[in-house]
Amino acid sequence: MNKTEEPKNNFTQVLTPRQIVAELDKYIIGQDEAKRSVAIALRNRWRRQQVPKELRDEIAPKNIIMIGPTGVGKTEIARRLARLADSPFLKIEATKFTEVGYIGRDVESMVRDLTELAVNMAKKEEHEKVKAKAHEIAEERLMDILLPKKPEEPRHEAEDQEKERVLEVVKSDKQPASSTREKLRRMLIRGKLDERYVELEVTNSNVPMVEIFSGAGMEEMEFNVKEIFGSILPPRKKKRRVKVPEAMEILVQEESQRLIDMDKVVERAIRITEQNGIIFLDELDKVAGSEKSYGPDVSREGVQRDLLPIVEGSTVTTKYGMVRTDHILFIAAGAFNVSKPSDLLPELQGRFPIRVELKSLSTQDFVLILTEPQNALIRQYMALLATEGIELEFDESAIEEIANMASKANERMENIGARRLHTIMEKLVDEISFDAPDIAPKTVLITKDYVTEKLDEILEDKDLSRYIL
């Protein structure tokens, strides 16, 4: 059975669905059903690679629709999933697209953007592979700049015969230059030349600014025009005076570009786009209209019709070649508070067989979000203020009060989920953040009374809270 075409370090080769959920639990509180569904979908991609080739192409990805209010973790689940899979991941809003014939983005542009991301990923991987070799070549080039070779004088036949006779003398003459070069190399490696300036000739790859004003579906023209100008105009070179470490970086970058096989990079990028790509299509509910509408909403159904062939599986032309979308995983999300998933075109509904409803966050969820994840909000603020010498400490009752106030604010105003915690925390530490450079070093204890004092008045004043929280 052929098990190629997958990166050796791909997480899905070692993580089971249970382990994927455990990884997601480190960053996302609750939403167990959604985590379970995406874990199975991700594992199924690896399983598909293990089946016989004739059956492999027949297994379609199980696309997912996440239904739930804003700020409950839909985007975060998809983003963390892509990092686990080491896959090209693109998040895009469905509202950016319009039906062909209207001003706006063409739906095929998301596949082009995903391919561009994959090319950058593949290029970065290749860059790491050639880094050591590039560093060696760059070091030699830098040594040539620091210790230029003497220009060779024109030689005559008689002189060549004479030099052959005194070969030993020639060798002994070259020895001091070689030892000087090695001595200089040791100084370079030890960092003793870091303050020295060198003059480099670098290529200026600026392409003239060309703006294309066109309708949907013409985004590719901009890239083509830039490529044409780039190939017609000769590369402009300019001299720069930089310190040795910066010169080394520039030379390593140049040599890496020369060593990388771009054909191989593009081939790999297209493969990982087609087999591992994930597109997170947010705000799908905004293009789902239940009734016939006029004016600005006229192209909603048209966007769905244009999305359909991409999700079903079609071939999209990109500047790197043809990319098939048959096995790209689509994760759609939306609040669906006005429209319903059943308002989507029946054909499009059929292409999203897995539907997961995400729950609104409770006060207890907010407490966990503030404290439990690896990137918990309280840890972020503590780390930020520690850079100024302020040691921030939170009382347990203060954390519960922050969660309680966030929950109240969501009930009274728009429910923006966990994003409300960001606005409340920012207001809470506003004064400390401003005064930090002047009062450091200092330990500041945030208590329940402190939280009440800072936020209670704002929360009580409905007009004020609408603007501040």
The fold-level CATH name of the largest domain is Rossmann fold
Largest β sheet strand count, sense and barrel closure: 5 strands, parallel
| Approximate shape | globular
Q: Which stretches of 5+ consecutive residues score pLDDT under 50?
A: 1-12, 165-175, 209-217
- The percent of residues in helical segments reads 40-55%
Binding site for ATP: 29, 71-76, 282, 347, 419
Protein name: ATP-dependent protease ATPase subunit HslU
GO biological process, one term: protein unfolding
Subunit structure: A double ring-shaped homohexamer of HslV is capped on each side by a ring-shaped HslU homohexamer. The assembly of the HslU/HslV complex is dependent on binding of ATP.
What this model shows, in words?
The chain is of the alpha/beta class and 469 residues long. It folds into 3 domains: 11-119 and 266-357, P-loop containing nucleotide triphosphate hydrolases (Rossmann fold, 3-Layer(aba) Sandwich), CATH 3.40.50.300; 136-148 and 155-265, no CATH class; 363-459, Helicase, Ruva Protein, domain 3 (Orthogonal Bundle). Helices cover 54% and strands 12% of the residues. The protein contains 19 helices and 11 strands. Strands 2-5-8-1-9 form a 5-stranded parallel sheet, with helices on both faces. The protein has a two-stranded antiparallel ribbon with strand order 3-4. A two-stranded antiparallel ribbon has the order 6-7. Strand 6 and strand 7 form a beta hairpin. Helix 15 (396-412) crosses helix 16 (419-428). The two termini are 57 Å apart. A double ring-shaped homohexamer of HslV is capped on each side by a ring-shaped HslU homohexamer. The assembly of the HslU/HslV complex is dependent on binding of ATP.
